[in-house]
Design brief:
By secondary structure, this protein is α/β, with parallel strands linked by helices. The protein is built from 5 helices and 9 strands. The longest helix is centred in the first third of the chain and has 21 residues.
C-alpha cells in the first residue's frame, strides 16, 4: 500500500487540530474583574466538602488560580508548583485556592494523588468562572482558562494573570505577593 494516500489524511487531521486550537484560544470569555475592582463573591465547596466563601478571607491575601482540568499535564505541573511553594506563600499571610469545573470527587482524587495542601473549588455550575471572565470552551465543552488573581485583604483584585506558565507561576505569585505587600505597607492599605 502506498503512503501517498495517508499523507493527505495526515495533513487534513493536522490542519483540523490546528483549527480547533485556534478556535479554542479565541473562544470569547466574558469580561471579568479588573485590578482595583471588588473581587466577585463565591460560595463553593472544596474537595473536602467544606464551604469556601470570599467573605471568610477578608483581612487576608487570597490567590485564586483557575485551571482547565484535574490530573492533566499542565494542570498537574501548576498544582505541584503551588504545593511546593505553599508554605512560603502561607508565610506571607496568603491563602491559595485552585478552581476548575471538575466535580468534588475529581478534586478529592487529584488533591490526594499529589498531596495538595490547599483547597480545590468545584465550580460545576460554571458561575464562578464566568464571573471572573475565565469560562471558555467550544460548543458544549466548557472549561476554565488558566488564569489567576491575587485578591487583597480588602477583597479587591490586586493582580490578574491572563497568561500563565504552569511551571513558573507559583514563583511569580510569590514574588508579586511580596511586592504587593511592601507596596501596601508604604501606602497604608
Amino acid at each position: 500500500m502506498s503512503t501517498g494516500y495517508f499523507l493527505p489524511i495526515g495533513l487534513f487531521l493536522l490542519a483540523l487540530l490546528l483549527l480547533a486550537i485556534l478556535v479554542l484560544r479565541s473562544a470569547p470569555a466574558s469580561a471579568g474583574p479588573v485590578v482595583g475592582e471588588d473581587a466577585p463573591a463565591f460560595d463553593l465547596l472544596d474537595q473536602n466538602s467544606q464551604r469556601q466563601r470570599l467573605e471568610d478571607y477578608r483581612g487576608q491575601w487570597l490567590v485564586l488560580y483557575f485551571y482547565p482540568k484535574d490530573d492533566t499535564p499542565g494542570c498537574t505541573a501548576e498544582a505541584c508548583q503551588f504545593r511546593d511553594e505553599y508554605y512560603r506563600i502561607k508565610a506571607l499571610g496568603a491563602v491559595v485556592m485552585g478552581v476548575s469545573l471538575d466535580d468534588l470527587a475529581s478534586h478529592k482524587a487529584f488533591a490526594a494523588k499529589y498531596h495538595l495542601p490547599f483547597s480545590l473549588l468545584a465550580d460545576g455550575e460554571k458561575k464562578f468562572a464566568a464571573a471572573y471572565g475565565v469560562l471558555s470552551g467550544f460548543g458544549p465543552i466548557k472549561f476554565a482558562r488558566r488564569q489567576s488573581f491575587i485578591i487583597d485583604p480588602q477583597g479587591r483584585i490586586a493582580r490578574h494573570y491572563a497568561r500563565v506558565s504552569p511551571r513558573q507561576h507559583a514563583g511569580e505569585i510569590l514574588r508579586d505577593l511580596q511586592a504587593l505587600q511592601k507596596q501596601s505597607v508604604k501606602t497604608g492599605h
